[in-house]
Amino acid sequence: SGSSDPYCVVKVDNEVVARTATVWKSLNPFWGEEYTLRLPRGFRNLAVYVLDEDTIGQDDVIGKVSLSRQQISAEPRGVDSWLSLAPVHPDEEVQGEIHLELRVPERGHPRVLRCHLIEARDLAPRDPSGTSDPFARVSCCGHTLETAVIKKTRFPHWDEVLEFELAEGEPGEAVLSVEVWDWDIVGKNDFLGRIEFPLDTICMAPTKGWFQLLPFPSTTETRGGQLGALRLAVRLVEDRVLPPHYYQPLIQLLTEPILYPGQSPAGTALAILEEVTSGESRQDVATKLVKIFLGQGL
């Protein structure tokens, strides 16, 4: 019909946190929807995807706007502008983490790099069933080894050790690359994410932990607004909660009777605040009182 049925999906670190209504048969949709999101302290990225809803088949992705935490934090008053939609490529839409242990034993000749692939979690679903068939592919010094395929899961547990014999001499700029793929019986395998480690870092000390999977470096050029633009207002507000003892002097001040010269004690400051503020404004009043008190060094 020459139009679309657009709606937006909001993701924080690839987790869907909100969805707008669908605006039917429009290339210039207006949503006017506002969301307040409680974000984890270490969040990295906020993305808004614009999709075209289809009654039959899968919805089409029109494009996305992606903002890093640093981009949002850099604007004290927030981001409020038209932002061009970027194309969405499957190889860049990765999520999840992988649990690894990498080490080079001090003894033994020749030296061997031991890569223990333990498990992964929250991988992207690449199959129609909403799961994947993940396996890991590890490359180092021109050699590549793979783990077994774990069928129908986004939380595979491999517990496999892959070993690479290291050449004599310094590792130089060599890297260990770990990629996770979804195995397909027909067609090519789907990319699920990757991570790289400098070999010299592993040789100096063992590396173990959960690591976020990353996309392939993007080689696509921006389309300069050909996919349209999204008017977006985003503001990041951070509140810091201190240990309880910091607030004790203020609590004591608010709950003690107020003394007037030459008169008997009146009500507390807290009781007076309750009378002169509405329920909706008390959170703002409380936050500002704390900031004033701490700002005075009290």
Quick summary of this structure?
This protein is an alpha+beta fold and 298 residues long. Helices cover 14% and strands 34% of the residues.
What keyword list fits this structure?
single chain, 298 residues, alpha+beta, Immunoglobulin-like, 3 domains, 4-stranded antiparallel β-sheet, 14 strands
Give a description of the structure.
- With 298 residues, the chain is α+β, with helices and mostly antiparallel strands.
- It has three domains: 6-89 and 220-234, C2 domain (Immunoglobulin-like, Sandwich), CATH 2.60.40.150; 97-212, Sandwich (Immunoglobulin-like); 244-294, no CATH class.
- Helices cover 14% and strands 34% of the residues.
- It has five helices and 14 strands.
- It has helices at 69-73, 199-204, 248-255, 269-276, 282-295, and strands at 6-12, 15-19, 45-52, 60-68, 79-84, 97-103, 112-121, 134-140, 143-146, 157-165, 175-182, 190-198, 207-212, 229-234.
- Strands 2-1-3-4 form a four-stranded antiparallel beta sheet. A four-stranded antiparallel beta sheet has the order 10-7-6-13. A four-stranded antiparallel beta sheet has the order 9-8-11-12.
- The radius of gyration is 27 Å and the shape is flat.
